[in-house]
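REQUEST FORM: STRUCTURE PREDICTION
Request ID: SP-0412
Submitted by: Lab K.M.
Chain count: 1
Length (residues): 411
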Amino acid sequence: MKKNTILAHGSAFLAAAVLAGCAPFGGEAPVAASASSCPAAVYQDASVDLSGYQTPDGIAIVVANTANSPAPTLSGTASALVEDLMTDQTLPTLWSATGNPSQIRVPLQTISATNSRKKNQTRVANNLVRIDDAIKTTPSTPGMSLFEGIGVALDALASQGVSSPWIILVGSGLDDTGPMTTTTGILGEDPARVADRVAATNPGMRLDGITILATSLGYTAPPQTPPSDAQRQLISDTWDATLTRLGATVVQDPLPAPACSVNSDQPVIPTELPEITVKCEAQKLTYELPSALLFGGDSAELRQNVAALLDEPVQILLDNPSAQVELVGHTASTQETTDDQSVQLSTRRAEAVATVLEAGGIDLSRITWRGVGDTEPRHEDLNPDGTQNEHAAEERRVDLFITGVASCPDR
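STATUS: Completed
RESULT:
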């Protein structure tokens, strides 16, 4: 990949945005030519260094142009990639990742060596505007499946004889149909386990030699509840692990996406995301902390920014200096580990949360912790064949009990 070219081309897409009547990042738009009412607020220079990756000779843009995902817009990095491809006289294809994926037809102007340089530059800029308009078009079928959209686009790239294919993936990652249908249970699992299961149940889906530029993962639009940073990271990690397990090279674009959807009445089922549950009884507060939000994989290694998730209990403990806190780690049942291993993991996780409280200013003399593994389950979380069921995510948690508080928090 030509590093200098990629980093420079964001400005060309800025020009295309202006031509379309849309504002660059942070500016005002006169009259937007876009098919969506969503403001074009993410046009920026390329932010991801693509040097070292293979140069594409074909690109498929797979977009979730449905409610639940942000109105699709190419980031600066994605637009620069597409611009390079068109400058090399190859046009991308566009695909709608609905429940029934289909190609988005858009009349793109050809780029030819017989044209003048100025004429080709104009055509490239016009094509970028047409692409940005086309990917926002209202879908004709309900549902969302980025995963199946990848499969359809991959077949098309193969039929074209593309040897170095790229897929630009634009969507929240919260599929409501297909192999990656997203549930609380999936997001509460170790991403590596999800990846192994998807690979095992889709043996014909191989992404070897494919490079995927993933944008907008974890960013949503109504009717989906906006994810927290921790929830967004879970979604991103799950997709990254799954696509990598299938053989793809995954490049994450961290730029945020707009918080509005395309104009569509096609139904999409919102996903219930793992979240912290708070219960308040007489002089006792309980925080149920999903392990998926706190730890990476089947480990006691804390995720980044975990401290922000514990701001409220830390502040309550600071405001109530006589209050005590107990941490109890739980794991889901599994046939892959012994009881002792489960207890040890849950104990290390409870202790890890204790270190976060201590770092927040809570003296260790006020904190106790223990792990119980899977010995105190709420539900039966194993199927008859030994696989985990939908209750497993609820079992993976650290319970934080605060006693001696004067009142419930004002939430």
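NOTES: Confidence is low (pLDDT under 50) at residues 1-36.
Reviewed by: T.R.
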